[in-house]
Amino acid sequence: MNQANPSPWQRLDTLMWSNRLDRLPRWQRRLVWLARLVYALYRDATQGYLSLQAMSLVYTTLLSLVPLLAVSFSVLTAFGAHNALEPLLLHLMEPLGDQAPEIVGSIIGFVDNTRVGVLGSVGLAVLVYTVVSMIQKIEQVLNNTWRVEESRPFAQRVSQYLSILLIGPVLIVTILGLSTAARHTAVVESMLAVEPFGTLIDAGGNLVPFFLITFTFAFIYSFVPNARVNFYSALIGALTAGTLWQTVGWLFAHFMVSSTKYTAIYSSLAILILFMFWLYIAWLIVLIGASIAFYHQHPEYLSSRSRDLRLSNRLRERLALLVAGHIARNFLLGTKAWNTAGLAAALGLPKTNIRRSLHLLEREGFLLRTADEPPCFIPATALDNTPVKSLLDAVRCFEERESGCRVAVADRGIQEVERRIDTAIGQALGKMTLRELAATLDDPSGSAAKGAAEQTDQAASG
Predict the structure, then answer these.
(1) Which residues constitute the domain of residue 26?
(2) pLDDT greater than 50 at residue 459
(3) φ and ψ at 24, to 5 degrees?
(4) For a designed S-S bond to 292, which of 180, 237, 264, 349 qualifies (C-beta 3.0 to 4.6 A apart)?
(5) Bridge-partner residues for 367, per DSSP?
(6) 4 domain residue, yes or no
């Protein structure tokens, strides 16, 4: 194809992936970000990142639903609000149509049979463990969405999970109770008789379930992942997920009306199958909202076609030099030390890649982690005593010893080629130290560093 006259698809591809968002006009920046977001969600869904996690959560929910409701029922009973549990479940199961009351009735029956007060210490411990395991599974899935590799400490995890179990049901029921009570006040009832206030109040009352589910999603996105989540990003994801919940729920309810053939095929199992199908859709909506919140807070993860930016050996070496050089530069200038998020924002690269580079340099003895929260990084040795050649050697040979791969044992011909390459690199760098490298670098907020990061983005995405 003639490169001088690219096709519309080629021009669109160039616009989407060959430009940094901060280099585009504002209107183009929003459209390109939205196009990249849609692509990323489609990619994550079709490659199994979202669908497999949603299916695993369906399995966990089926095992933990009754224990979770039993604990919630006990908490609400202590506050005299246990009668609110069934209407809440009916609303959540509303997309199941006429089958919803039957499913909710069965679930409530199981909950009534699970008497927490007569379970004993062992039974109660198993009950709480089952519920905590469900919340832990949700945290693991959301941590995967937020590219978080570390879970919370065990003691912190248990205390926060129990807080959610104790406060969550009461908070939801309180919000529902306040909205119902507000509607029956004398002021509101008098306004209902006056138009257009009556129509507006009715419309607002119909929006209460939407705002309730949106609030729940925002809470989950903000507090469940082991990461610092921007509330505005969590709210963007929650509003999208809430809109999807209402829209897909309406479509699913219409589907249920025409689902008589499933009843004919599966008989009594049809209700269970449709219930599991709705659970899968519900968790998929939750994960889509979480992904939108993540990509909104970390747009640098939208700079590549792949979910995780895969760097070649050359780009891995370049990134290690950039990271080590900028950390050394700040150390020389006496300015605040870099942390992972700061370097990712300055270089325009995903935190995952920055974190791996920092881990490599820290493990090989070039960097030290400070006690700050989040931790910052400083040089581990005197900059004049750190040859750039030794840093490159560490990057090129990282994890060779641990892998035990037989390819590492090369024959004499390959060894001679490697010796020549190593000699050429040594001659090119001479005795250049990390201090000298740091002195050549520009401020990472300047155009030079942005250009270097842009080249890395384009090479990796291409």
Answers:
(1) 18-46
(2) no
(3) -95, 155
(4) 237
(5) 379
(6) no
